[in-house]
Amino acid sequence: MKTRQLVAIALLAPFAASTFANDALRTLLEDSKASGKGVNLYVNGQAIPAVVVAVDDRYVLARSQSQGTIVIRLDRLDGASGFASAERKAQ
């Protein structure tokens, strides 16, 4: 029984980590949308500086000074960086 549980945990661990990463990414994107602060969106090895305008289940709509309106599929987004001001609860 323990072996089955360990195998199940080992198989499900990447999905749990992926869900956490998606939550952190979505939080950063939503924060950029709410505050108007810029973020760097990393797509296929390229860094795109932009401000998020809208976040959907499938797409991120952003704008930048150099490119205007940018639409990126969430499944193609490698990552994002920026100063998130999302408040954390005190522990």
Structure notes:
The chain has 91 residues and is α+β, with helices and mostly antiparallel strands. The protein has a single domain, classed as SH3 type barrels (Roll), CATH 2.30.30.100. The chain is built from one helix and five strands; from the N terminus they run αβββββ. The protein has a five-stranded antiparallel beta sheet with strand order 4-3-2-1-5. A hairpin with a 3-residue loop joins strand 2 and strand 3. The protein is globular, with a radius of gyration of 16 Å. This is MSHA biogenesis protein MshK. It comes from Candidatus Accumulibacter phosphatis. Keywords: Signal.
List keywords for this structure.
SH3 type barrels; globular; 91 residues; signal; MSHA biogenesis protein MshK; alpha+beta; 1 helix
Strand and helix layout:
Blueprint: H1 2-35, E1 39-43, E2 46-55, E3 59-64, E4 68-73, E5 77-81
Antiparallel strand pairs: 1-2, 1-5, 2-3, 3-4
Assign the structural class, choosing from mainly alpha, mainly beta, alpha/beta, alpha+beta, or little secondary structure. alpha+beta
> How many whole angstroms does the radius of gyration measure?
16 Å
User: How much helix is in the residues?
Assistant: 25-40%
Low-confidence stretches: 15-21
**Mean pLDDT over the full residue set:** 79
Number of helical stretches of at least 4 residues: 1
List SSEs in N-to-C order: HEEEEE
Shape: globular
By CATH reckoning, the class would read Mainly Beta
Tally of domains? 1
CATH-defined architecture:
Roll
Q: How many strands appear in the DSSP assignment?
A: 5
Strand % is 35-45%
Order of strands in the sheet with most strands: 4-3-2-1-5
Main beta sheet: strand number and arrangement? 5 strands, antiparallel
Distance between the termini: 36 Å
For this structure, the CATH topology is SH3 type barrels
